């Protein structure tokens, strides 16, 4: 391990930045409960790396963020999709896992719940895909305690809108 480096402002600020996920090109995705101008509870933001410096974080908009809480983003290395956890009314109980896909114009598809085969009535959170792209790992409290589960990451491709395949 090398010495930890603080990238400083504007990525790190006097606000709270949590759960960073970094794409191959260095863009950092994170959630924050207290950056002004969001959609509700914690929202998901990104800060692009340009010429070795981070740009001002930007809210990912209402395709991903809602009046509820969006947390624990995982960005695909190529930024083709974003996984996250949210407690929305269309869920199966507590926090559920959602996916959004990046369109050619750089906008995001409306977030889609990963469904009842993945989500439970308990908290499902902290999605991460294995480096080879084959497995989706996540934490769930479905057995009363936080445990880790894994499934075939094929579900991410299966839920992708036909127009993006």
Give your account of this protein's structure.
The protein has 165 residues and is mostly beta strands. 3% of the residues lie in helices and 36% in strands. It is built from one helix and 13 strands; from the N terminus they run βββββββββββββα. It has one helix spanning 154-158, and strands spanning 18-22, 28-32, 43-47, 49-50, 53-54, 58-59, 70-75, 81-86, 96-101, 112-113, 124-129, 135-140, 147-152. A four-stranded antiparallel β-sheet has the order 1-2-3-6, with no helix packed on it. A four-stranded antiparallel β-sheet has the order 7-8-9-10, with no helix packed on it. It has a three-stranded antiparallel β-sheet with strand order 11-12-13, with no helix packed on it. β1 and β2 form a beta hairpin. It starts with 17 loop residues before the first strand and ends in a 7-residue tail after the last helix.
């Amino acid at each position: 391990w090398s010495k930890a480096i603080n990238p400083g402002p504007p990525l790190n600020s006097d606000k709270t930045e949590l759960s960073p996920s970094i794409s191959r090109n260095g863009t950092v995705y994170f959630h924050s409960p207290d950056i002004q101008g969001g959609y509700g509870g914690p929202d998901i933001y990104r800060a692009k790396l340009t010429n070795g410096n981070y740009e001002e974080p930007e809210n990912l908009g209402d395709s991903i963020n809602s009046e509820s809480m969006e947390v624990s983003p995982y960005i695909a290395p190529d930024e083709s999709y974003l996984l996250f956890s949210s407690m929305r009314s269309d869920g199966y109980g507590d926090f559920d896992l959602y996916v959004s896909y990046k369109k050619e114009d750089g906008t995001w598809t409306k977030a889609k719940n990963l469904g009842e085969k993945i989500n439970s009535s308990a908290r499902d959170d902290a999605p991460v895909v294995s480096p080879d792209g084959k497995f989706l790992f996540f934490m769930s409290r479905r057995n009363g305690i936080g445990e880790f589960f894994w499934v075939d990451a094929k579900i991410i491709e299966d839920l992708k809108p036909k127009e993006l395949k």
